[in-house]
Amino acid sequence: MAILVTGGAGFIGANFVLDWVAQTDEKIINLDKLTYAGNLQTLASLEGDPQHVFVQGDINDGALLGQLLTEHQPRAVINFAAESHVDRSIHGPEDFIQTNIVGTFRLLEAVRGYWKGLPEALRESFRLLHVSTDEVYGSLEAQAPAFTEQHAYAPNSPYSASKAASDHLVRSYHHTYGLPVLTTNCSNNYGPFHFPEKLIPLVIVNALAGKALPIYGDGQQIRDWLYVKDHCSAIRRVLEAGQVGEVYNVGGWNEKPNLEIVERICGLLDELQPRADGNPYHNQINFVADRPGHDRRYAIDARKLERELGWKPSETFETGIRKTVEWYLANQWWVQGVQSGSYRDWVARQYGGQGE
Ligand code: NAD
Ligand code: TYD
Hints:
This protein is of the alpha/beta class.
């Protein structure tokens, strides 16, 4: 038996692959284009392990997808592959349309062709799990209840709009062709191997480098943070027991304003690796221009997943953020490895003189 994942060299996909190999004996085929966000160093511990088969390639390549499906006969496909960074989608939406929408369409077509040809028993048990985001639901007012699976889609950024489109395509392939799909919509993740363009790893890495910690606008935007290993356990649970055609929201009941997150990281660093001059990391905080169209608040109601499939997160924000900061302190080699020329170009373009 085998499963095929796409985007398994990125942040969440790679954490999923590492956990899968640690917890099961089942083969995992990993198709990843290795964009700036994909990193084989994250998977270095699996080198030479025959349980993990890495293939560099694009989900837009229907022929390659068809060939991999025929060769490995997976019982499930999990789609992590995406362009995932909101700020990049504002600077250049094209890649988001190509990978998140067209790529998901090509994957659906390839999987549909493969699935139709399976013997009946395998066709029955086959699953395509599409990994998506809470951002498809848009922005919440301060007192509004958290997003349930019934919340209307109202995406506000090119990123979230492209993910919303992909969710709709996945849904339509179930209703039209009977493809056995599952969709998860998860809140913001954090944890090991998170590319330092997103808030939490950027703040840790900049703090240690003595650089400014850029806070967009007033820093009172709220995100609902989930430790990445808890997202991975939710995906495994949905794959194992989710109802075909259903959507499951995944979240950790950890709504926090950005400024509080940054202050928390500064406090942990003051404790674990104090600055040489004895000053608090807090002094590096720098308020910068707001993100255009910045969503004010996300919050996930994950009760369906808990009620129907018995899933709960294992980490609180307090335990998860401590583990994360400790991981970055212990794994500076990984951070240095991903800070290539293209990473530096992005930082210069996004933050210019303001964030440095
Ligand atoms: P990421 O940007 O870290 O990784 C994406 C991976 O996909 C990279 O390895 C990249 O090389 C690969 N990829 C990109 N385009 C590809 C293509 N055309 N073909 C094959 N591979 C391609 O993203 P992530 O944070 O790991 O997110 C994974 C998934 O989870 C995404 O679908 C994202 O929308 C979703 N999600 C992310 C979060 C979060 O907080 N990071 C929260 C909820 C949902
Ligand atoms: P991010 O990690 O990019 O995730 P998303 O936009 O998908 O939620 O950003 C999380 C929050 O942090 C978001 O409200 C934007 C804010 N932010 C900053 O204030 N400064 C930064 O440098 C970055 C990257 C994000």
